[in-house]
Task: structure prediction
Amino acid sequence: MTAPMFERVALVGLGLIGSSLSHAMRRKGLARSIVGHAQSEKTRDTALRLGLVSSVYASPAEAARDADLVILCVPVGACGALARNMAPAMKAGAILTDVGSVKGAVVRDVGPSVPKGVHFIPGHPIAGTEHSGPEAGFAELFEGRWCVLTPPPGADEGAVRRLAAFWQACGSHVEVMDAQHHDLVLAITSHVPHLIAYNIVNTARHLEQVTDTEVIKFSAGGFRDFTRIAASDPVMWRDVFLNNKEAVLEMLGRFSEDLTALQRAIRFADGDTLYKLFSESRAVRRGIIQAGQDTADADFGRHHGIPGKQP
Ligand code: NAP
Result:
């Protein structure tokens, strides 16, 4: 039995990502003890009942005290206030990281309150589901997925290596990049697709000529997949758009131009343009499957990686 990588890990936030990290750490023996904090008593009680943590605290500072790894697993907009609260309790040499879907805003909000001697290394596991809360987590969530680390300039290299090794032990591939670049890439691969999903589901909901029952009854593959994405946590996604404004607006501008071109092709019955574009898009799907980031299985009845859970 190898020694745990960390003595005490504090999970600040015990939803999908926090609980999945607990499952992964316990399965691999990565921490001697795992403690936690969440804002509601209900989540704290559930986390204890499920054995996600050995102790749970109503105070984030108490959870962070003496931890050698503190992981913020809360919506992006909550990170700054929590970091300010925990700062006086954090021990020198500890690593402070997060899992937020936006990185520039976390650096802006958390960076100024990081105490001297604490290594602040923001991170983002590109792994998730549309489920949230402490019961949604599972150990395999990070397996074969990428985790992006965005260490600020001058970050301690040893601490970056330790955190990278931690994510690799959770099953992830690790890539290091600049926070701004992360936000631009994720705007097009994750944030804009979620916005489109929220928008199309709302458009369908408000159509007067089509009843709500028809939308549900005849939900063909395309619409059904959008409803899955649009079932994601509203607080998390509100915070993503409030905190990655520039990159999302830039990508939305590009998206609108391309959509207008498609609209023209349909209006002028330009089948060649439509065929060419649809053929090129198929290649992207094949690339994702070849890279092991999805499977080619038909999606009817898929379980989205959650053993025992129905879609
Ligand atoms: P979640 O399941 O909704 O859980 C959020 C957790 O944060 C809950 O334990 C919640 O506590 C706690 N929390 C919220 N606001 C808080 C506050 N002000 N103070 C203290 N605790 C607070 O969310 P999640 O999916 O795990 O997402 C967490 C982070 O991971 C987000 O930043 C998100 O961007 C990022 N992320 C998510 C995914 C995904 O697919 N879901 C993927 C990658 C990264 P209560 O339950 O008590 O309210």
Summary: Residues 13-18, 38-40, 43, 73-76, 78, 82, 99-101, 124-125, 128-129, 132-133, 233, 236, 240 surround NAP (CB under 6 Å). The beta strands are 6-12, 31-37, 55-57, 69-72, 95-98, 119-120, 123-125, 146-149, 173-176. DSSP finds twelve helices and nine strands in the chain.
